[in-house]
Amino acid sequence: MAFKLPPLPYPETALEPHISARTLQFHHGKHHKKYIDTLNQLIEGTAFAGQSLEDIILATADDLSQQKIFNNAAQTWNHSFFWQCLSPDGGGRPDGALMDRIQADFGSFDKFRQDFSTAAQGQFGSGWAWLTEDGGRLKIMTTGNAGLPLTHGETALLTCDVWEHAYYLDYQNDRAKFVDTFLSELANWKFAQHQPEGAAAGKEPRRAQQRGQIAARMGAAAQRSEKKTSQQQG
Ligand SMILES: [Fe+2]
């Protein structure tokens, strides 16, 4: 079963004037679609066909020979997640339990906002800024290119795409203004507070499983590297 481009959760004009319909037409209809089409082509007839997106991502991360599959699978996941992190009614501050957790883990919402903004602006080149949950604690992380919290054993709550294709048509090179607008007008806190399904109820078994898979994969990569070295020496 091939992966399909999920529809946007709102009309293309819904985020205007902050994100134009034209940006969404390109970002969703061209960029996101291209990642999915390429992923489907790459995995057709391989052992990855029929696997879940998360399993493909975990199986190909840190494996240079599978980098194309990883990049397209991770960008497929990242964009499907990102559309839900935007809302015409977004921005401002979360409420309830998520606000309490942000205040507890960052000191205040303003401090979180400042740190998230600095991280998003400081990500060199293409990438993503994330609010994540790690072992019950909220954190900010950035990833380059197609990177995502899943392969670090962390759970994504909210993300901002800082690839230029996310903002160039509307903001040109002013990433700072785009990130500020994301936080002020678009961030979908209602979505974030329900991430992941059951995060608050404890995702430790899944995280432990992910970490186990990552450790196993890194061990296998190290073995491959040792084998290669001994073959070269032999
Ligand atoms: Fe993007």
Task: Report on the architecture of this protein.
- The chain is mainly alpha-helical and 234 residues long.
- It has one domain: minor pseudopilin epsh fold.
- The chain is built from nine helices and three strands; from the N terminus they run H-H-H-H-H-E-E-E-H-H-H-H.
- It has helices spanning 21-43, 53-60, 67-84, 96-106, 109-122, 168-171, 175-186, 189-192, 204-233; strands at residues 127-134, 137-144, 155-161.
- A three-stranded antiparallel beta sheet has the order 2-1-3, with helices on both faces.
- Strand 1 (127-134) and strand 2 form a beta hairpin.
- Helix 1 (21-43) runs antiparallel to helix 3 (67-84), helix 2 (53-60) crosses helix 3 (67-84) and helix 5 runs antiparallel to helix 7 (175-186).
- The longest helix is centred in the C-terminal third of the chain and has 30 residues, at 204-233.
- It is globular, with a radius of gyration of 19 Å.
- The termini are far apart.
- The model is unreliable at 198-209 and 211-234 (pLDDT under 50).
Briefly summarize what is shown.
With 234 residues, the chain is mainly alpha-helical. The protein is 53% helix and 10% strand. The protein has one domain: minor pseudopilin epsh fold (3-Layer(bab) Sandwich).
CATH superfamily: Iron/manganese superoxide dismutase, C-terminal domain
CATH topology: minor pseudopilin epsh fold
| Helix content bin | 40-55%
How many E-type strands?
A: 3
What would you call the shape? globular
Q: Write the element-wise H/E pattern from the N-terminal end onward.
A: HHHHHEEEHHHH
CATH class: Alpha Beta
Question: Class by helix and strand content?
Answer: mainly alpha
